[in-house]
Amino acid sequence: MKIRAAVLRSTGAPQPFSESRPLDVVEVDLAPPGRDEVLVKVVAAGLCHSDLSNINGDRPRPTPIVLGHEAAGIVEQVGEGVEDLHLGDHVVLLFVPSCGHCAACAEGHPVRCEPAAIANMAGTLLTGARRLSENGQPINHLAGLAAFAEYTVVARQAVQKIDKRIPLDIAALFGCAVMTGVGAVINTAAVQPGQSVAVVGMGGVGLAAVLGALAVGAAHVVAIDISDEKLAIARRFGATHTVNATTPDAVEQIRAFTQGGVHHALEMVGVVAGLDLAFRATRKGGTTVTVGLPKLSDQMFSFPSSLMVVEERTLKGSYMGSCIPRRDVARYLALYEASRLPVEQLITGTLSLDEINEGFDRLARGEAIRQIIRMEV
Description:
Structural class: alpha/beta
Number of helices: 13
Helix content: 25-40%
Low-confidence stretches: none
Distance between the termini: 17 Å
Radius of gyration: 20 Å
CATH topology of the largest domain: Quinone Oxidoreductase, Chain A, domain 1
């Protein structure tokens, strides 16, 4: 079938993207789903910094490629072997499909799925296929999803069925921002009621982490950023304290009003300075979690190793919120429906597929949290 999609043909385009047009919205060919694959009509897709890192070359993927990894839509067709999804089902797309049988999946860590990592790096579906093409030449799928398109074919393992009462523009957020931010709080850090939490970086994932910390009953939620405007947003979200990271005594401030540092500090920006601040703001016996993906370079983080012993510190990484998506999407949606996780606040604008380059300009300038591309239903 013929569909319209946003194709990235090369990385490193200069800003503004409204002029350089790195994403080319064109008509391409989409093959029908094969065995264990699903055709999904994309209804809503979020613009994320991870997509931006593909555009600017910080985390390059093979081109040409259709970007987009945070989305929700409606099942249009299922391939052979798919028996638990049907025409009209509403689904959230998952950017790490779980094969279910590799060592990581068998140990209960589907976000570490080994075949999924190989497929995602190669630009294919989990099945190894590429279903997109242009003039007979294959086009790669970002994270096996390629969600900046009117329709997409994905592996069965890359979709999670949801209740139809959930608005699909809200549901899209649960594919990345909510799963990553809230998951880092609940799964990776295991924040307990009454504890203190600091979040470094008030982008979409960071603000989702703020909401997650509040949802689980954290007593102190400290929002940290270099932008006073972002900190004001965090206060509206419910952060109990805000600190500008450029303040010389930022760590001392945090330690002062949390009686020695926070129980849990989460770094969301992918910058070593942010991780260093988070680590220094964590109290003895506390946990520092790093979520932000840095550039693929030689960035290194160092600290006195004795602190891990004498202060019983923990330093952990968190990918996709350490989630088990088939469990956690439903749990987090239940929190949303109970008004305990008001993630609709993350949405700062909607746009059409044709406006995608302008949307990434706003994201790069720090003027948006989550913009949602709404496809025609």
